[in-house]
Amino acid sequence: MEQDNRRKRRKLLPMAPKQEIPAEESAAEPLSREKKRPRGRLRRRWLINTLAVTLVVVSIAVSAFSLAMYSYYSSTILATLESKAQTAAGMFRNYTETTYLSTARQFINQFEEKTTIEVQILNAGSRVLMSSMMDISGASTHSPDVAAAISDKRVRTFVGADPDTGDNVVSASAPVVYNNTVVGVVRMVTSLKLVQEQMLRIVAVTSALGLAILLVMGLIASYFIKSVLDPVIRVTETAKRIAAGSYGVQMEKQSDDEMGELVDSINDMSMKIDQAERTQSEFISSVSHELRTPLTAINGWAETLYSGEVRDAADVKKGMGIIVSEAQRLTRMVEELLEFSRMETGRFNLSVEPIDILAELEDAVYTYREFFRRKGLELDYTECAEELPIISGDPERLRQVFCNLLDNADKHGGSGGRIEVTVGRDGGNVAIRIRDYGPGVPEEELPFIKYKFYKGSSKVRGSGIGLAVCDEIVNSHNGTLDIENAPGGGCAVTIRLPLGPESV
Predict the structure, then answer these.
(1) Who's near 463: CB < 8 A, 6+ residues apart?
(2) Measured on CA atoms in the order 4, 393, 483, 387, is the torsion positive or negative?
(3) How many CB atoms lie within 10 A of CB 40?
(4) CA 470 to CA 408: how far, in whole Å?
(5) What residues contact residue 446 under an 8 Å CB cut-off, 6+ apart?
(6) From CA 367, how far away is CA 363, in angstroms rounded?
(7) Cα dihedral 305, 308, 310, 316 sign
(8) C-alpha torsion 107→113→116→119, nearest 10
């Protein structure tokens, strides 16, 4: 009685034939060579930029090294001349003013570096008394270091063009002080020509080294650019082929790095696009056939009845019944396609309310039980042993799922002569299981059975989107829809929906 009351409170749904039938997998086409288009601009730009940066870095390094060496040589020469001049001036302080010249001549004659360093002995008036390089006795010098040494009574240096000769020199002048009076100056002078020649050699060597570094960097950059761009070029060519319609092409994976991951993604995308194209083409062909069959029946009987050829009331009633039945079938197919279209475009909504899930399931079972009996198919329904709480859901959508799954069990497993429906609590869920005793689903097709447009090896007529719609409805209720081959043969579909009003 309780079940009858539940059925009376529910509107019975019409049968809605729905099925999932997969299409054949597409084989990957080998990647053939295409005529290469002119390219290399990125390669040239990358190489030029790399060499330009390297050239700037090498130029800065060579310039900095050359300046550092020039500064080192200049400071070293200045320090050497200053030290020698200071030492010589200190020696002359130990002699009297009358022995200054004889001591100076002796020092010049014994000076070992007179070939590279000129020693000048000057009096307090900046006049040259003697020199180690040439006879310039009596000549006056106007070098700033001499005047500064006489006035400051300390060693002074000078780097630049000599005011008297115009040569680039480095000089150091040390005063000779006797009784706190400057009686002369010892000046050490050397030409910067040697330093400049040494610097030219250093610059030439460092420049050659910089060019060698630039060449090596060019070779390394060319190899690196080639190793990066060649896979990118192959990926680009494959992407162009896919965009041009060559779906299913595959690239060879040559590495396990980021580029290898990109190749895997492109290959996977190509295969999925190829499969989608094939399944969509088969879907269009299948739907066209499915729509044409009821339309043919409707059109044939309508023309027959319109022509007046059928006069017998029983035949007229039979023809009208076929027209109504085929029209209902056509309507269900169109509604299924519209339902799927709403899901694809995000316009799929649920009308959630508290529902008695047992009552909704029993309505679907009651609808199909008599229909199955007339076909010689037994429908066994095992009632739940315990009272299930009210859950939140869309009753129309859930009845649609139950009817669709019962219809699929009939079409694909009806040859087994028996269909079982059980319901019970599974942890925090209510589990509804629909099992047939037919041939089941090939194991290799099970992972794809819920994909849209997938029809596999089944020859049963249908659009291939019924299970996809059911899966979307169950997922929208935070539930799961699992399909597996049952032990002993047949296919089992299990729906799990969360218990409690907060389940959706």
Answers:
(1) 18, 19, 283, 286, 287, 290, 333, 336, 337, 453
(2) negative
(3) 10
(4) 11
(5) 483, 484, 485
(6) 6
(7) positive
(8) -10
Tokens of 336: 């299924």
**99/116 Cα distance (integer angstroms):** 27
Token pair 């009632």: residue: 383
Q: Determine which helix (DSSP H) or strand (DSSP E) holds 106, and give its type and residue range.
A: helix 100-110
pLDDT string in tens for the chain (504-residue length): 444 444 444 433 333 333 333 333 333 344 344 444 455 677 788 888 888 888 888 889 888 888 888 888 888 888 888 888 888 888 776 665 566 677 777 788 778 787 788 888 888 888 888 888 766 566 778 888 888 888 888 899 888 888 888 888 888 999 988 778 888 888 898 888 777 787 888 888 888 888 888 888 888 888 887 777 777 878 888 888 887 777 777 877 777 777 778 888 888 888 888 877 776 776 677 677 667 777 888 888 888 888 877 778 888 888 888 888 788 778 877 777 777 777 766 667 778 888 888 888 888 888 888 888 888 888 888 877 777 888 888 888 898 888 888 888 888 777 778 889 999 888 888 999 999 888 888 888 888 778 766 666 666 655 567 788 888 889 888 999 998 988 888 889 999 999 865 444
Which is it for the CA torsion 408, 412, 414, 419, positive or negative? negative
